[in-house]
Amino acid sequence: MSKNEQAYLDLCEKVLDQGTTKEDRTGTGTHSIFGAQMRFDLQEGFPLLTTKKVNFNLIATELIWFIRGDTNIQYLLKNNNNIWNEWAFKRWVESDAYQGPDMTDFGNRSLTDQAFNEQYQAEMQSFKERIVSDDAFAKKYGELGPVYGKQWREWKTSTNETIDQLKDVIDQIKTNPDSRRHIVSAWNPEDVPKNMALPPCHALFQFYVADGKLSCQLYQRSADIFLGVPFNIASYALLTHLIAHECGLEVGEFVHTLGDAHIYSNHVDQIKEQLSRESLPLAKIELNPELKSVFDVELDDITLKDYQSHPAIKAPIAV
């Protein structure tokens, strides 16, 4: 059994057994603990969960989207990545320009009302097609505001200058690897209350170089354990691989520190099903040896090898 995956499964069990029942912004309700940490040895293998199938292409294309500083879902949809659709769709259906059927609370209503779900699916499909085909529509309604990519690559200062945090950190790793300032923050207090479709859950990450290896620690303020955290683990592990590759380093650890770690009340059965399964050997990551810069990465530069898993487990997303 993989020690890496067991760290995640142990967290699931702990939150189920010890979590406090809490209300939340989405109205769904959670089982929650505050303060948890998982460690993943990236030398052991790539920490993509095996107790349920996780779509690696979604993780890789989202990370490339972040790295490019993009904040519009058009790129994602063109790569068949639908994981940010609901937040952009919510902005569209709440706008004055939207004239379709009432989509209030579409996330929950679509689960319990079949007639509404059919309407919702039709409206969402129409929305996606317009985002892909109509650049002007996409520019207005596919935009999520200054979310992760914007903060990573173009943090706006009080003097209207910008800071490319990710580029600066990579330069620091190359020139001053022992620095304790290899930090990128997505949490911008000015943008959080008014501009972002979703305030950043994975808020800050830091790199650490020792013994020729690059490690990364992420602080995640809010952690959806069943749907979100498996993606976050793999995404930051992949980012560590990419930056280590550019900097001529091996990979070390990914350390995942969680603030509010929660299981949504409508994910409990799915978590229990996952916990009933045995983990399988971990996959490996191979990167194109010709890739010189993180900022040039394409999906074809990343290969996931020997991934095996149990079947996927579906669950509703809380918006």
What does this molecule look like?
The protein has 319 residues and is of the alpha+beta class. Helices cover 38% and strands 21% of the residues. The strands form three sheets. The chain has a six-stranded mixed beta sheet with strand order 1-2-8-7-6-5. Strands 3-4 form a two-stranded antiparallel sheet. The longest helix is centred in the middle third of the chain and has 20 residues. Pathway: Pyrimidine metabolism; dTTP biosynthesis. It catalyses: dUMP + (6R)-5,10-methylene-5,6,7,8-tetrahydrofolate = 7,8-dihydrofolate + dTMP.
Write out key terms for the chains shown.
319 residues; alpha+beta; Thymidylate Synthase, Chain A; 2 domains; single chain; two-stranded antiparallel ribbon; six-stranded mixed sheet; 21% strand
Entry summary:
The protein is of the alpha+beta class. Helix content is 38%, strand content 21%.
Annotate the secondary structure layout.
Layout: H1 3-18, E1 20-22, E2 30-41, H2 56-67, H3 73-78, H4 85-93, H5 106-112, H6 114-133, H7 135-141, H8 148-153, E3 155-156, E4 162-163, H9 165-175, E5 183-185, E6 202-210, E7 213-224, H10 228-247, E8 250-264, H11 268-275, E9 284-287, E10 302-305
Parallel strand pairs: 7-8
Antiparallel strand pairs: 1-2, 2-8, 3-4, 5-6, 6-7, 9-10
Helix pairs in contact: 2-10, 5-6, 6-7
